[in-house]
Recover the amino acids of this structure.
């Protein structure tokens, strides 16, 4: 299986290089821009009409799309994240700094957003517990810095980390759309070219999938972790947004989201 994991890592690296080298529309460049509107905790609109999605973080959603209409239905801490973001950048000139990938599939600019006093809004949202680190290679310029801010929020039980008590996999269905922590034993693993799925619990009605996209396997490899082998039969604690698609799952994009609690016997 280690050969399989190594092959998946090679695919991830190749995909990352190909993606980061493609020509992207909009010609975003590092510099100063004025914020016209704050859409939510991790997205703003500039006076030039373009939207900016904060690189490296994910905040709870304030709305969802139904057909061609946006419905305001905020997840826990979504309004707090939006309001805190607004206090940092609304109506202000900010400095944008771009990583390897400069736009997303929706045409939004991807950037680190710095306020006029030098604070990084991405980092401050995480530090307040209103966002989680959301990593996709090759955009890792401030990865360690954002992880450190998240650890500070977790230790101080801020925002999303206020209630650190983990739930069981069977309870995940009652927390769909929320950021949370789930504890269970990895009973099975399945791999495809795009993802590794770890299964907590054997019963399909009680199961939770932990999805690790192969694009981010180098982050695990750099920590000496074989994501396809090292978690099997282990009791783990997984943190992230609980979602539902043919069963409950949490997408894990970096190794700090999953911790081993036991040693294999």
């Amino acid at each position: 299986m280690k050969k399989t994991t190594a092959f998946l890592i090679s695919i991830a690296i190749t995909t990352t290089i190909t993606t980061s080298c493609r020509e992207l529309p909009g010609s975003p460049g590092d510099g100063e821009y004025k914020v016209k509107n704050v859409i939510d905790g991790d997205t703003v609109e500039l006076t030039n009409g373009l939207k900016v999605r904060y690189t490296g973080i994910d905040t709870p959603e304030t709305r969802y799309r139904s057909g061609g209409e946006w419905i305001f239905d905020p997840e826990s801490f979504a309004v707090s994240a939006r309001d805190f973001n607004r206090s940092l950048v609304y109506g202000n000139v900010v400095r944008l700094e771009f990583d390897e990938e400069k736009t997303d599939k929706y045409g939004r600019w991807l950037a680190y957003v710095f306020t006029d006093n030098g604070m990084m809004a991405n980092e401050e949202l995480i530090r307040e517990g209103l966002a989680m680190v959301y990593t996709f290679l090759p955009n890792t310029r401030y990865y360690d810095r954002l992880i450190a801010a998240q650890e500070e929020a977790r230790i101080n039980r801020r925002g999303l980390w206020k209630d650190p008590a983990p739930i069981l996999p069977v309870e995940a269905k009652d927390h769909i759309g929320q950021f949370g922590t789930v504890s269970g034993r990895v009973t099975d693993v399945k791999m495809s070219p795009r993802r590794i799925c770890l299964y907590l619990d054997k019963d399909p009605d009680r199961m939770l999938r932990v999805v690790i996209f192969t694009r981010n396997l180098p982050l695990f490899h750099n920590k000496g972790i074989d994501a396809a082998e090292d978690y099997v039969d282990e009791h783990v604690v997984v943190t992230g947004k609980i979602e539902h698609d043919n069963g409950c799952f949490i997408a894990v994009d970096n190794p700090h989201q999953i911790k081993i609690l036991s040693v294999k016997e």
In short: Residues 165-260 form a domain with the OB fold (Dihydrolipoamide Acetyltransferase, E2P) fold (CATH 2.40.50.140). Confidence is low (pLDDT under 50) at residues 15-25.
